[in-house]
Design brief:
Blueprint (H helix, E strand, L loop, with lengths): L4 E2 H17 L1 H8 L7 H18 L7 H13 L6 H15 L5 E2 L1 H19 L9 H16 L4 H18 L23 H18 L2
Antiparallel strand pairs: 1-2
InterPro entries: DhaK_L_YcgS, DhaL_dom, DhaL_dom_sf, Dihydroxyacetone_Kinase
GO molecular function: glycerone kinase activity
Enzyme class: transferase
Length: 215
């Protein structure tokens, strides 16, 4: 298996992300029911439909992955996804800046992309690990990719490590007290529920990373 990722592979990953979110739309709504408005699945799916539209509209004669991600960032900021739109928008734009000019990603570039993505969420949302948010999924993903890269692992092993960390991060939110957003008003009652944003972030991370190594 090649240890590089093509522009087309990145571009095609966004169809996989949207499909994964649509498959789990009701599940995400149900997760949101005890601690939110029961509409997280609808909101995140709608936002990534805008992402897919931006990907489809990207000029066919261009292959700059960084520019593509920045276009996605701009699209999602204006997607109407409440707080989620600016968070993902900033993350994609920061990720695009980190790999600007690249038409092919190396293992190191993938790490740079994901670290910048996570830092974008952290900076825009002023969040940290343990607050029961999407960051509890996204930060461990970037961290696991960095660790696997530092250990000299091939791309496939890096991807597997990133997906496993994303899943563990998502599941960890079940036992957390919510300190952010509407669910924070529930206090102790927020414990015992997986955070919907952490769950949708897992589906996004999983679909994105899998698409990079699967045909």
């Amino acid at each position: 298996m090649a240890d590089t990722i093509s522009f087309n592979r990145v571009k095609e990953s966004f169809a996989s992300i949207l499909n994964r979110l649509e498959e789990n739309r009701q599940y995400l709504n149900d997760l949101d029911s005890p601690i939110g408005d029961s509409d997280h699945g609808e909101s995140v799916t709608a936002a990534f439909k805008k992402v897919k539209e931006a990907v489809d509209a990207y000029p066919a004669d261009q292959n700059d992955i960084g520019s593509l991600l920045q276009s996605i960032g701009k699209a999602i900021i204006f997607s109407g996804g409440a707080a989620m739109g600016p968070l993902y928008g900033t993350a994609f734009m920061d990720a695009g800046t980190a790999i600007c000019g690249k038409s092919v990603l190396t293992r190191e570039d993938l790490v740079a992309l994901m670290v910048a993505f996570a830092r974008g969420i952290e900076r825009r949302g002023k969040v940290k690990i343990g607050e029961k948010t999407m960051f509890d999924t996204i930060y461990p993903t970037a961290e696991a990719l960095q660790k696997a890269f530092d250990e000299g692992k091939p791309l496939s092993d890096m991807i597997n490590a990133g997906i496993a960390a994303a899943k563990q991060g998502m599941e960890s939110t079940k036992d957390m007290l919510s300190l952010r957003g509407r669910s924070s008003r529930l206090g102790e009652r927020s414990i015992g529920h997986i955070d919907p944003g952490a769950a949708s972030s897992y589906f996004i991370m999983e679909a994105f990373l899998k698409s990079l190594v699967e045909g």
